[in-house]
Amino acid sequence: MRAGASLERCGPPEWQGTVHTHIPIAEGRRANGIFSGATPIAFLGLANVISHLRAGTMTALAIDSEHRSPLVPDVPTLRELGYRGDITQVYFGLVAPAGTPAPIIARLNEEFVRIGSMPAFRSKNMIDLGLEPILDRPADFARYLEENRVVAERVVKAALANY
Q1: pLDDT value for 7
Q2: Residues near 19 by Cβ (< 8 Å), separated by ≥ 6?
Q3: How far apart are CA 73 and CA 69, in angstroms?
Q4: What is the CA radius of gyration of the chain?
Q5: Continuous segment of H or E residues that includes residue 2
Q6: pLDDT of residue 48
Q7: Which residues does 25 contact at the CB level (< 8 Å), separation at least 6?
């Protein structure tokens, strides 16, 4: 399962002709800033604001993902809007200790996919909470973790260069 994440610390302060000032603040307080009008824009995790988007109390401008999310299909991606920098993602995954026997990993994966594919479970425990379930095979998730680590390393280095 993966969910959208944050570009707030990557790239130069100029983006799409605007200047942004990064103000480190807890995610929940960022949402409060949007509601109060103190903060005009914020990068927030989809899972943290999906209920506000569905209720119409908050408007999503873009999602930081390579592809549109089926959870908010009308919201364009940053790529669609012209952003060409690295995109990192927050994700939730299930892992086991190194050295866990392959048959145990296969059995656990089989059960997680079975349960995660049940419509009622999937809806109540993932989609309704703003999580986009991707029920990968272990090798696919391992590859995703490595690719994401490489991108995250570039993002952190770029962010440190801007401070």
Answers
A1: 45
A2: 13
A3: 5
A4: 18
A5: strand 2-3
A6: 82
A7: 33
Query: Torsion-angle region of residue 8: left (phi > 0), alpha (psi -120 to 50) or beta?
Result: alpha
Alpha-carbon distances of 3 from 27, 29, 52, 64, 119, rounded to whole Å: 15, 20, 16, 10, 19
pLDDT tens for the chain, 163 residues: list them: 333 334 444 444 445 556 666 667 776 677 777 888 887 788 888 888 888 898 998 889 888 888 888 889 999 988 888 888 787 777 788 899 999 999 999 999 999 999 999 999 998 988 888 888 889 899 999 999 998 889 888 888 877 776 6
DSSP SS3 for 18: strand
* Reduced DSSP (H G I as helix, E B as strand, rest coil) percent helix, strand, coil of the chain, to 5: 40, 5, 50
Which of these, 119, 134, 125, 128, lies nearest to 50 by C-alpha position?
A: 128
Which pLDDT score, from 0 to 100, does residue 3 have?
Answer: 35
- As a whole number of angstroms, the distance between CA 65 and CA 69 comes to 8
Q: Residue 110: CA atoms inside 13 Å, Cβ hemisphere, count?
A: 6
Do 71 and 127 touch, CB atoms closer than 8 A?
yes
What are residue 130's phi and psi, to 5 degrees? 85, 20
